[in-house]
């Protein structure tokens, strides 16, 4: 309904989570008491001003205090104290007397409006507070994952290991299947790699380049040193220490992960101007535009986000003929560029073009370099940041504009998105696609994760791993 649309417009997927977890409360009597208290508070100031009704005024005050005391300790009907029906009867009788008194209706009306405003303010405060705590839970690393990272970091410094020369050759060999994963989450990246390799027909051709930050580098390095994924190879890179090919680093590099943007649309007709829907778009970050200079020996790579699970062999992605296109992506035609034209400043857009989403993307690095994609993106971000003043919105707009006309549409069967926010996805659909994308705040490694989808992610964790057991990761 309209209230749900407004809630999602203001607070995003928190409203979807709240609606799903809303408990049915047996509180009919409590609500009735709150209504009576509301009416009594509205009448009391007017009654208190009438000298002839001092006894009624005292009685109303006493009943209001009794109700406030009971309701401060009660949320459901079963919590109400014995003999509560007598209190309700007394309050109803007092209100009936108050309504028969010669009070100024305008004063009562004003008090009602004040109470309504106060109630709405209180409701908005609690809604904002709950939405903030939801976001905090979504963005905070669980204690078990923090434990895992710390344990692995300590073990890394206790151990000594070197990369084999044969592996170094594989990391540079353009004839192999190269996957790029940006991540600061050991478990998430491990599930991506494990699920990809488990379904690969030729695991020896799979090469994974995991880009992380300095804080997580040593834990990641030790994890992938001690865990093998069939015959696949894994390279862990600290993006902050990466030297870009044919480029002088002016400023230090920092890892930025893919971002999700919330876009709401309004429906306009002759009688109303209301919200119609909210959509979510997952898009490249600034770090993605460093890839051609980091992997200067490679011609084609596949980018997998760290919140995906692979369910089939992906080798066909290397055989797709993208023509002159730079990027292969699943299009998201629920949002078209024309609907976002206000974000594109003075730039021209193809109005019928669909937006596209990250999750799985095939990148032709040769054509990327030929089209100067990275330089175009940086220029657009700077221009839009100066005009709009919002770098987050500028990144979304610049990404869509940079690849405009250069996107090869992958078949929808490659990926199913929304498993981190949409409770209503049919399990038959989940089983029928190549890749599951847990985009949204309700990631499968969090308590917030949607239970019916979690098993598709958890089955690619090693339940017997001693580090996971010691940190209670599997519980």
UniProtKB/TrEMBL annotation:
<keyword id="KW-0333">Golgi apparatus</keyword>
<keyword id="KW-0961">Cell wall biogenesis/degradation</keyword>
<dbReference type="InterPro" id="IPR029044">
    <property type="entry name" value="Nucleotide-diphossugar_trans"/>
</dbReference>
<dbReference type="GO" id="GO:0045489">
    <property type="term" value="P:pectin biosynthetic process"/>
</dbReference>
<dbReference type="Pfam" id="PF01501">
    <property type="entry name" value="Glyco_transf_8"/>
</dbReference>
<dbReference type="Pfam" id="PF25557">
    <property type="entry name" value="GAUT_1"/>
</dbReference>
<comment type="pathway">
    <text>Glycan metabolism; pectin biosynthesis.</text>
</comment>
<dbReference type="InterPro" id="IPR029993">
    <property type="entry name" value="GAUT"/>
</dbReference>
<protein>
    <recommendedName>
        <fullName>Hexosyltransferase</fullName>
        <ecNumber>2.4.1.-</ecNumber>
    </recommendedName>
</protein>
<comment type="similarity">
    <text>Belongs to the glycosyltransferase 8 family.</text>
</comment>
<keyword id="KW-0328">Glycosyltransferase</keyword>
<dbReference type="InterPro" id="IPR002495">
    <property type="entry name" value="Glyco_trans_8"/>
</dbReference>
<keyword id="KW-0808">Transferase</keyword>
<dbReference type="GO" id="GO:0047262">
    <property type="term" value="F:polygalacturonate 4-alpha-galacturonosyltransferase activity"/>
</dbReference>
<dbReference type="GO" id="GO:0000139">
    <property type="term" value="C:Golgi membrane"/>
</dbReference>
<dbReference type="GO" id="GO:0071555">
    <property type="term" value="P:cell wall organization"/>
</dbReference>
């Amino acid at each position: 309904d309209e209230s749900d649309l407004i809630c999602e417009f203001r607070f995003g997927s928190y409203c979807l989570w709240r609606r799903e977890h809303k408990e049915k409360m047996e509180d009919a009597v409590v609500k009735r008491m709150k209504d009576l208290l509301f009416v009594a508070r509205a009448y009391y100031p007017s009654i208190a001003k009438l000298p002839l009704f001092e006894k009624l005024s005292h009685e109303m005050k006493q009943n209001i205090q009794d109700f406030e005391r009971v309701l401060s300790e009660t949320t459901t009907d079963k919590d109400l104290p014995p003999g509560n029906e007598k209190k309700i009867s007394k309050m109803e009788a007092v209100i009936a007397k108050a309504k028969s008194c010669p009070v100024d209706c305008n004063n009562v009306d004003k008090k009602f409006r004040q109470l309504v405003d106060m109630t709405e303010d209180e409701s908005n405060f609690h809604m904002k507070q709950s939405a903030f705590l939801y976001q905090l839970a979504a963005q905070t690393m669980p204690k078990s994952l923090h434990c895992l990272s710390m344990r692995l970091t300590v073990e890394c410094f206790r151990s000594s290991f070197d990369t084999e020369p044969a592996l170094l050759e594989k990391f540079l060999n353009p004839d192999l299947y190269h996957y790029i994963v940006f991540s600061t989450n050991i478990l998430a990246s491990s599930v991506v790699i494990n699920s990809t390799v488990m379904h690969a027909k030729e695991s020896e051709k799979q090469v994974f380049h995991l880009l992380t930050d300095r804080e997580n580098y040593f834990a990641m390095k030790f994890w992938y040193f001690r865990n093998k994924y069939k015959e696949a190879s894994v390279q862990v890179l600290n993006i902050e220490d990466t030297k870009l090919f044919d480029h002088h680093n002016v400023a230090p590099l920092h890892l930025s992960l893919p971002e999700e943007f919330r876009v709401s649309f309004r429906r306009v007709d002759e009688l109303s101007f209301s919200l119609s829907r909210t959509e979510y778009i997952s898009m490249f970050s600034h770090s993605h535009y460093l890839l051609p200079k980091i992997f200067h020996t490679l011609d084609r790579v596949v980018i997998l986000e760290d919140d995906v699970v692979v369910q089939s062999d992906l080798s066909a992605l290397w055989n797709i003929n993208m023509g002159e296109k730079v990027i292969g992506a699943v299009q998201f035609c629920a949002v078209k560029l024309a609907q976002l034209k206000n974000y594109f400043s003075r730039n021209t857009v193809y109005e019928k073009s669909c937006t596209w989403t990250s999750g799985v993307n095939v990148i032709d690095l040769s054509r990327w370099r030929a089209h100067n994609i990275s330089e175009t993106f940086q220029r657009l971000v700077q221009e839009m940041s100066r005009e709009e003043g919002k770098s987050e919105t500028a990144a979304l707009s610049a990404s869509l504009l940079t690849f405009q006309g250069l996107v090869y549409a992958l078949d929808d069967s490659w990926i199913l998105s929304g498993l981190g926010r949409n409770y209503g996805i049919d399990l038959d659909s989940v089983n029928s696609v190549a890749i599951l994308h847990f985009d949204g705040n309700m990631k499968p490694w969090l308590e917030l994760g949607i239970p019916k989808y979690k098993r598709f992610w958890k089955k690619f964790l090693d339940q017997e791993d001693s580090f996971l057991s010691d940190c209670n990761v599997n519980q």
